[in-house]
Amino acid sequence: MKRLYILGIGTMATGHDEPFSEGLGMLEKLPINEHVSPKQSRRFGRLTKMIYIAAKRAIESAGVSDSTSLPIINATCIGETRAGLGILEQIHQTRGKTISPALVPNSVHNSPAGYLSIGLENRAPSITVSQGWVSSEAAVAAASDWVDTGVSDTVLVLSGDEADPAWVAKLRDFGASSLAAVLEKEAFQEGAVAMVLSASGGDSDLGSVVAGVERRNFDPRSLSDLFNKYRIEAGENAEVRVRRSAGADRLRPVLAEVLHRPVESILVDGQGRGTAQAYALNALASAARGTAPDELLLVGGEIDDVAFLHWVRNR
Amino acid sequence: LGKVRIAVTGIGAASHLGPDTEALLAGLKRSEQTFGPGTRHDVDFDIVVAEADEDCFAPHSHPELDSPTGSLCLKAARECVRHSAEQCAGAPEGLVLGTSTGGQSQNERTVFSILEGNPPSEFSYRRRGCMAAPTRLVARDLDIAGPVQTISTACTSSANAIALGAAWIAEGRVSRVLAGGGDALCYTTISSFHILELTGPKFCTPFGQDRPGLTLGDGAGFLMLERMEEVLGSGRAPLAELMGYGMSSDAHHMTAPPEDGAGAEAAMRRALESAGATPDDIAFINAHGTGTPLNDAAEANAIARVFGKTPVMSCKGLVGHTLGGAGGIEAVATVLSLLERRAFENAGVSQPADDCPVTLIEPGGMLLKEGAVAVSTSFAFGGNNCVLVFGARERGTR
Predict the structure, then answer these.
(1) Distance between CA atoms of residues B91 and A42, nearest Å
(2) Catalytic residue among B16, B83, B194, B321
(3) Average pLDDT, stretch B175-185?
(4) Which residues of chain A lie closer than 8 angstroms to B136, CB-CB?
């Protein structure tokens, strides 16, 4: 697995572009028409707008002059939520007979990548990965795979998810208060992050990253083996965090034992960085922009999967 | 794929044609269209579908991770691992699964019950509803300890999963990977394709004149991939060789390909380059061939430009369009063709439409020479394209 250099970063997320809000948090502004015409963006779903903005900012930040041949790896856990839920409501109302055709292309998980490839006139390979709350790590890992096997030397990695407070309210209206409470407890913050990652770029001041997602036992031996496999050696001053997700409570003490240090368990940090799925890249973006120590090891546990993302400023 | 050669050492499939590859092969040989009205989805319009029977959905002991797509994938994945084990291969060290719906059937059930004022007391989206739910079920059931990845690029999902699995082998990330995917029918896909007028009550006729659109189906297909060097070194024979793959984006429209099939053509040319093959090397093409007016015309134009008159067939006249599972099932069908040394006919129609400049494989099929090479194509919403190139097992020893 190649460690990749970060050539550019773009965000459209709380803590970066807008203040963090408690509970289910939505971005107030999505300035999509700074990047595409209203005619082009009229069919974009909310998630596509966030990802599109982040992507354009990352491309600009990296100084990529020709984005038509930049392979794209997109990551999302829940996709375009409004489109998906909207279709289900309409199916329920009409026994499937009448749904809005405009919602259909937005209901597939690869719709943000599809719209972006059209907007950039990009005919390069593109995949969308979705590994629950560890999808960002899965996307960075896939970028390494593509670089390792010569698909491209440079890859645009995207990650995002949208929040829908209206759906939480609807859950309450229909008597599903316990499900609504679960969603609120997640403190879900919507947002998107994009990065241009490359095999070359040792002079980049944004550092380098390696990531992996593996099905593993949540025990010290398995975790040590994972870090050895990917040659991860967290330095003494490394900031180590376990992301709050389905397996975090089990993972944190194991990680502390393996690394011989206390480990913080984080859902969203004090600056409101993060969204549930894109949290990993969001934290990475913050670190690379100089708001953290020079090394960050982020570990996530999700059902049976252990995911990690290791960033260093100089290597 | 550079210098690394990829061997296929196991196959597994579950579809309308039956719960395993034996049933798939028998159905391809029989070439009889047997679609019908669905039995699992109560919708207010007429439609025919390629439903899989109950025995295609694997029973398992992980109810917290259950979904129809998950158990359909598990059925095919178990067969693939069993098949591979019969050749003395070890257990898979990684899993790449492609799906366009994941646990969506569970989400539908939950949302509908909420809208009816009867919400469930609990529901874990991340265990049963999310896109990765089938991946987690398959990985847990088969006790795969290693890298896992879920790809969701609509109808190219499992073809892309196979391509990424090959990359894992090529870069040495794992020694054996289970790669493929599937999709079970659900309300979302049935209603979505209906409203786009891409499906209906008539059987699909890929590349046919006045083709009425696609027939949706349940289906899953998996390959076990390993390094050819290791397979041959251990005295085993591969089932086939995955010689290369090519991916591209249309950059054109979310639900329609460009008329000239330029994006598809780019993926085909990249796949040939990756395989170190020329168009003349290709014995037949297992086409995406959905049976929709736009896809088939665009794909046929791309095939004509890249491959000329190379014979073409589509499995979708028999298994339906299994969306995220299509690339996986069709990869398995292509490997079966190479093993049988026979390309199967294009079920549903033998004469191409005026707007489809391709040569279709006629009833009775076509014999293949030793060492034949075949192409399997997949195209998707979002303008996503993935093409795989397979070589017959005899090539492995060359």
Answers:
(1) 48
(2) B321
(3) 98
(4) 215, 303-305
